[in-house]
Amino acid sequence: MFFAARSLLALYSSYGLLVLANALFTTLTSLRADLEGFSVQTVGLMMASYFLGMFLGARYSARVIARAGHIRAFAAFASFMSLSPLIHVLWIDPWVWGGLRLMDGFGLAGLFIITESWLNARSNNQTRGSILALYMVVNYLASGLGQLLLLFSAPSEFEIFAIASVCFSLSLLPLMLTRTEAPIPNPMTQFSIRPLLQVAPAGFWGAVCAGSVNAAFFAMAPIFAQGQGLALEQISFFMMVGIFSGLVLQIPLGRLSDRIERRKVLAGVCAGGLIFSLLLIVQTELAWPFSSLLLNVFAYGALAFVIYPLAAAHVNDWSDPEQLMQTSSGLLVGYGSGAVFGPLLSSSLMAKIGPSGLFVYIALNLLAMMLYALYQSRVAGLQREKMEFVPQPAVQFPLEELYHAAQDEATPVDESLYAHDKPHRKVSKHHCPRRFYAQRALRQYRLKQLYQQRQRRPWHGG
Fold first, then answer.
1. What is the pLDDT of residues 441-451, one digit of tens each?
2. DSSP string, 406-455
3. Is 419 exposed, middle or buried, given 0-12, 13-18 or 19+ CB atoms closer than 10 A?
């Protein structure tokens, strides 16, 4: 593990500085827009533009990378990201900021694609798990520490935007000086949700829910905290605790979902997130102490950031090995759709009922997902086999190249661990036709594979 980390130290350093700068800049943009008198809906629209840019970048920035190469593309994207905070503070206009956030999202998606493809190319079967674990730690650590940089200057000042610009610029240095050979760009697959909806609809809607609540939290939680009258130091700690908590329960809940039907675990996670969302709503009315606010947001983040990894694991259980990339692309479409609409809808609700509207919106999303996951677990039967849960970061837009490689190498879970999970009734084509035909197709595929293996087996006759 330490050897793998040392060989990729430059890449981890560049990525950590990039995530740290982006975490600071995202929170800073929301706070400064509020101070400039932008309406809550305008802030939501600007942040939705950012996530729309990330969605488009996940689809199209690979063309820039293929044309320019990894190092030059990284330099181009990071250079623009370094300029963006300075343009924000020099030209204060909501339309200009919205366009800049759209381009920021596109550039960041390209930077994340470069990082993940580089990590994947430099890993092998023995080191990929360690590399993915360190990637997660760097992601959460840098995202949380980025919030603390708000303590150096007020959002109304130029200096804090300059700090964000400097951090983006510094992310260039380790990678520009590395001797590590750049990988060959991989072609992007076509995005489609049809295979995913046919095979694992709970996975698709889980990705939509995760994108919606996570994007709403990152975009509007600073406005929520500012609306509660919190000081700048308290806002930075509020955001930091909410982000750090995402690392706490991924492994325990992932291992639990290896033993219990994943949709039930997903429903339980949504139920827990719903409870703490309601407590945060009550907090706005009863003015509980700041320590209880931190405790509630810690518990909320620990649960909410597990929704997407659970949805991805559920899809991995149900997907044909040959269709994994296509169904996983459906997860990206689902997450991106939720991430675009999350800030828009939550900001509209906040404009109507106040800061608590953020967690009212989140609670409604989690309630709907909980009920749907329970419904699917009852009527859709069980998967053919479970694949081992693979944790992943959920504090950024999921691009998943490294995660796909880890999924491909995941081992099946011992059936004795989840043998007690029996379907409530037999899946038939009458009450669940899509799942019935999907399961039949899976059985036919496995029989075909078994037949081909027997055909290739050498004959040892006398």
1. 555 555 555 55
2. HHHTPPBPPGGGSTT---SS---TTT-HHHHHHHHHHHHHHHHHHHHHHH
3. exposed
18-48 per-position pLDDT tens digit:
899 999 999 999 999 989 989 999 999 999 9
For residue 91, count other CB atoms closer than 10 A to its CB.
10
Q: What angle do CA 248, 252, 256 make, to 5 degrees?
A: 150
Mean pLDDT over 57-79 rounds to 82
pLDDT value at 403 more than 60: no
d(CA 76, CA 224) in angstroms, rounded, equals: 34
Contact by Cβ (8 Å): 407, 345: no
Its pTM surpasses 0.70: yes
Tell me which CATH code domain 2-180+188-417 carries.
1.20.1250.20
Residue pLDDT, tens place only, 224-251: 999 888 999 999 999 999 998 888 888 8
At residue 357, what is the residue type? G
Q: Looking at residue 193, what DSSP letter applies?
A: S
For residue 424, name the pLDDT band (cuts at 50, 70, 90): very low
* Residue 149: DSSP 8-state: G
| Residues 147/24, Cβ–Cβ less than 8 Å | yes
Q: Where are the domains of the chain?
A: 2-180+188-417
Distances (CA, A) of 1 to 5, 118, 134, 410, 411: 6, 17, 9, 18, 20
CA dihedral angle for residue 232, residue 349, residue 275, residue 150, rounded to 10 degrees:
-20
Written as one string, the DSSP assignment of 311-369 is HHHHHHHHS-GGGHHHHHHHHHHHHHHHHHHHHHHHHHHHHHH-TTHHHHHHHHHHHHH
Helix (H, G, I), strand (E, B) or coil at 387: strand
Quote the pLDDT of residue 400.
Answer: 52
User: For the range 142-145, what are the long-range contacts, defined as Cβ-Cβ under 8 Å and sequence gap of 24 or more?
Assistant: 142/15, 142/16, 142/17, 142/18, 142/19, 142/20, 142/23, 143/19, 143/20, 143/23, 143/243, 143/395, 143/396, 144/23, 144/240, 144/241, 144/243, 144/244, 145/20, 145/23, 145/240
